[in-house]
Write a structure and sequence with these properties.
Elements (H helix, E strand, L loop, with lengths): L27 E6 L5 H10 L6 E6 L2 H16 L12 E5 H9 L3 E2 L14 H6 L1 E2 L10 E2 L2 E13 H5 L20 E3 L3 H11 L15 H11 E4 L6 H5 L4 E5 H8 L5 E4 L6 E10 L6 H11 L1 H11 L2 E2 L12 H4 L8 H5 L2 E2 L5 H16 L3
Parallel strand pairs: 1-2, 1-3, 8-9, 8-10, 12-14
Antiparallel strand pairs: 3-12, 4-12, 5-6, 7-10, 7-11, 7-12, 7-13
């Protein structure tokens, strides 16, 4: 699953290094997703440390590249031909979609939450997301394999000008089926997202295992497919900008930066609930535990820093939902795209790993719908 930033945020991290000294090895090396950490936050972290340190923050444009980097480090670590020691980052950004694979392939190591004072301030939904067994499956008794630091939603972006003449604006998934928007809709090219939103419309979970037991699921998918102009996970916003489509289902990490530059585009999180995604800090396998890495993780969870990161990067920090809304800055608590109403958030879900049997059902149904084998 890919979430590629469509437009770059001016205040996001753009420099590859924040160095506190000469050309000596960095005390903390982090590889992270582009446009997720504001540069001033890194500066604040360095300034609060008692000792002068060197920080190396290197950005990559795609989560898939970061996962591939973890695989490459493991391959080199196991190769007798590779020079040792390897230059492996202390922390890496990983999307929650990749977490099960990273655990199963032994690319990362568990975290010790005893050294993370703000761990207990994370909402239970976020804690449970990263508590897994050795196979990467959700497990209430499992280890903590990652530290969520940001999250977002799947939402509906739409053109304000096109909907003025219709006299209504989308508020929930059911609006995607309305005749007025036929052939004006783009959907993500992701079976879990598309089948999931249909399940949510029908009152079921995104993580439903037995699709064949859901009445009318296939019929609803066929009707939705008839509404769609095209499917894309990477280029769904360009047609919306030029008015070729009127609605697009997409990820908040892509859509929210766009709203600042495109006044005719608005967005809404469906009232019945939606899919959630998260950016995580993980420790690559073979990296020695460092106090500085733990300090950085915990620093990201501090209230003031979490608020600042959310407002600048337009991606909500993981500890924000646990804070009393009246204590949050007005620009954050009144922004329902960054912080959905509590009832909407309660009805929203992270996409959990599925069994092989369930995956086969999703793939089969997706293929039938997409290739017209109905």
């Amino acid at each position: 699953m890919k979430r590629r930033p469509f437009l770059t945020a001016a205040a996001a991290l753009t420099l590859s290094k924040f160095l506190g000294g000469c050309d000596r090895p960095a005390d903390l090396k982090v590889e992270l997703l582009q446009n997720t950490i504001p540069s001033q936050v890194v500066g604040k972290f360095r300034n609060q440390l008692a000792q002068r340190v060197t920080l190396d923050f290197a950005v990559k444009p795609k989560l898939e590249e970061l996962f591939t980097q973890l695989q490459e480090w493991r391959r080199k670590a196991e190769s007798p031909e590779e020079e040792k020691p390897l230059k492996i980052a202390d922390l890496v950004t990983l999307g929650d979609y990749w977490l099960a694979k990273a655990i199963e392939q032994k690319l990362i190591q568990p975290l010790n939450t005893d050294t993370l004072p703000h761990w207990e301030q994370l909402p239970a939904k976020w804690q449970n997301l990263v508590r897994r067994n050795e196979k990467g499956e959700l497990d209430p008794q499992g280890k903590i394999w990652a530290a969520p630091y940001q999250w977002g939603t799947t939402l509906i972006a739409y053109r304000i000008d096109k909907f003025k003449s219709l006299g209504w604006t989308p508020t929930d998934w059911k609006d995607l089926w309305r005749e007025e928007v036929r052939d004006r809709l783009s959907l993500l090219d992701q079976p879990r997202e598309v089948i999931g939103l249909v399940l949510k419309k029908l009152g079921h979970s995104y993580n439903t295992l037995e699709l064949d037991k859901i009445p009318n699921l296939k019929e609803e998918l066929i009707q939705l497919n008839n509404q769609v102009k095209f499917y894309s996970s990477n280029t769904y916003l360009q047609p919306l900008i030029i008015g070729d489509t009127w609605l697009a289902v997409g990820w908040s990490g892509d859509v929210l930066p766009l709203l600042k530059t495109e006044p005719e585009i608005a967005a809404v999180i469906p009232q019945s609930g939606t899919a959630l995604w998260a950016n995580l800090w993980v420790k690559p396998g073979g990296v020695s535990r460092t106090d500085l890495a733990d300090k950085w993780i915990d620093f990201c969870w501090q209230k003031q820093i979490a608020e600042q990161m959310s407002l600048i990067a337009k991606i909500t920090s993981a500890t924000i939902p646990a804070i009393n809304r009246n204590e949050l800055p007005e620009a954050l608590r009144n922004n329902e795209l960054l912080l959905p109403p509590e009832e909407v958030l309660a009805n929203s879900e992270f996409l959990h790993p599925l069994s092989s049997e369930a995956i086969a059902q999703y793939r089969q149904l997706w293929q039938e719908i997409r290739v017209g084998l109905i």
